[in-house]
Amino acid sequence: MTDTSFALTGQEREADLELDQLKQLVGLVPYDETQDVFPVTGWDAIVFICGNATQAAHFYQTAFGMELVAYSGPETGNRDHKAFVLKSGSIRFVLKGGVDPQSPLHEHVRVHGDGVCDISLEVPDVDRCIAHARSIGATILQEPEDLTDEHGTVRVAAIGTYGDTRHTLVQRNDYAGPYLPGYVERTSDLVRPEGAPKRLFQALDHIVGNVELGKMDEWVEFYNKVMGFVNMAEFIGDDIATDYSALMSKVVANGNHRVKFPLNEPALGKRKSQIDEYLEFYTGPGAQHLAVATNDILTTVDHMKAAGVEFLETPDSYYEDPELRERIGKVRVPIEELQKRGILVDRDEDGYLLQIFTRPVQDRPTVFFELIERHGSLGFGKGNFKALFEAIEREQERRGNL
Ligand SMILES: [Fe+2]
After folding, report:
1. What is the 289 CA–ligand 1 centroid distance (Å)?
2. What is the pTM of this model?
3. Distance, CA 288 to ligand 1 centroid (Å)?
4. Does residue 360 sit in the same domain as residue 284?
5. 3-state secondary structure string, 138-181?
6. Do 213 and 342 fall within a single domain?
7. What is the pLDDT of residue 1?
8. Per-residue confidence band for 233, with pLDDT thresholds at 50, 70 and 90
9. What domain range is 262 assigned to?
10. Same-domain status, 215 and 358
11. Dist. CA 262 → ligand 1 center (Å)
């Protein structure tokens, strides 16, 4: 079997990540790319459309510790919008905001608020992917084309996924620029707080998509058939207590498991589902949370809190529950350290994970972040759903949306 999964991607090499570290961080698995109908190497970039990208770029640098690496805007000949490219480890965020009053980006913000418009993926062969997607009847939003500048050529195309979200496919084996043609290198004069680690997270673990009631299985099938994604062992459809924010969730992943997409749909419960709240305020399906992988969640939480990032609170009863203590066993730090910060723990047959969730990071109760530190567990924190949903419900209630 040809095993290509245990090779670093260009972005991972650039970020000085190591294979063993990455296997633990995001749970890579070996697989045979030659048997894949739609080979995906990993994430290329997460593109956000923001009401004010200039200020969002500041937020992700100061609060998330990310580094400004590239830019496109009026000064570079792009009169429509500004775009800031930020990195942390192998993660790349692109923040776009309209400059021209007629920019179509303004309409995206009016409809959805700040959000993710493009989950862009790196692929070894754009044309092969598009040919397969077309044969299954997927929506091709952009036909394959070459983009060239003095740094080389990238080949790109795009297919549609849930809502107004797309997957741009990027083949960049022949490109040495800071992001894509049209972008110039740009750094920031920002001075990091003393004692701050080089970065607060190293890689992207998963992005959750919220879709409408009854649509989850359709999107699972889309990822299976169009993009050759596999269903991950953790299918959590039946596990979610109906007394709490009811939802159904299934997880698909690309062959090497770098790219993982849990897909949620609301379920009928006693109270309004958190997924319904999202769908109402995002005006339809979209990306709900982005989980970023860190190898030191305690330090990351401390720095993000000091920079003003707000996290969901976990009640003391969570940590004092003898059943939880029994279930999670021994983890790398005393449980009191987790309790102090509100970090959740989950354990399964493969190991454990630590996780914590931010409050929504924009005005609408839509997109938020998860920090995750994996120690063998390849799950998504199933054992924490009850505690997590109770915390989300408290927030929903405060917003008057329960
Ligand atoms: Fe998650």
Report:
1. 7
2. 0.95
3. 9
4. yes
5. CCEEEEEEEEEECCEEEEEEEEECCCCCEEEEEEEEEECCCCCC
6. yes
7. 44
8. confident
9. 203-399
10. yes
11. 8
